[in-house]
Amino acid sequence: MPSKIKMKNLPILTIAIPTFDRPKEILKRFDEILPQIRDNHKVQLLVIDNDSTVSVEKIYTENYGENALENVKIITNSSNVGLSANVCRCFENASGRWVWILGDDDAVRENAVALLLETISDTSEDIGCFNFSTDFNLYQSDAVIATTSELEHYLNNNKQKFNYPVSNFVYISVTCYKLEVFKKLVRYGYLYASTHCPHFGMILIMLLKRQGSLCIKKSQLVKWDPNHSGRDWSKIRLITGTSFFSELESLDDSCVTIIKSLVNEFCPRGFVKWMFKIVIGDTDVPIGYWYCFFGRLIYFGRWNVKISSICFLLLLPALAIPAVRKLFFAILNPRYRSKLNQGENRI
Fold this sequence. Notes:
eight-stranded mixed sheet, disordered C terminus
């Protein structure tokens, strides 16, 4: 339920955290953010609790009850609406002129709030969102991008400098949005909820419809931890989901190129062995799903991914037979074979 505390004035910035069942992580975010926003009514902290087992309201009250801040608001969903919808609810419920959506497992830098406020105060009216550097994508300089063709050109010119150039726009904690622009785009977030990165679709729509410009910033807001135990993003879901951006309104060739680049960034090295283990080992997923999955990769993937996907499609009829599936995986994966010998039928 919403916090009973009301703010006296509308803030400049809302820091919105969508969260579910991560009590330790959300407590760390409180510890990092609250000292930066204390006595600062220019900033609101908004937490959207996706019906967690232990409510964030309870965690906050137990740990900060005596020092509760006026600019903290907690909303608890009556039921779990899913990750993407919870991200969209951040846009719906933010009060600030700008909203920074922060993942609950991303450590906030000590100067993040001050940096954002300074960035906002210095920006021009045409800017619709800021995308900040990360440890895996360190921007060399600031840049303003007004169209998808400009974004494609920027990514092509810098692809040798970045590890995952397009993925930086999917990484949820490094973008700050102008609420006036993105509240009008929330419906696209819900429409493309199955992509698992609705915020990226909203950025593409903003550029396609010329509703605002994207500003690249070389400074950083969060600390990236690639070994974080809480990270449970599924590359399979992201590959399948992001391909649905090919149905965006006003889609142009540059946008298609950007989407293809994103899909390929999610395809790791050793793609064939990686996919073989997943297709054979994940018996909960029907074979029909993989026909759709590899069909999309044939369209979106780079040439080696296309060839591998065609081979997988040819193998799928045989892999539909459970005994064949088990045999292949037992040959490929010794750990799986040893568990089969113990009478276990799954990893």
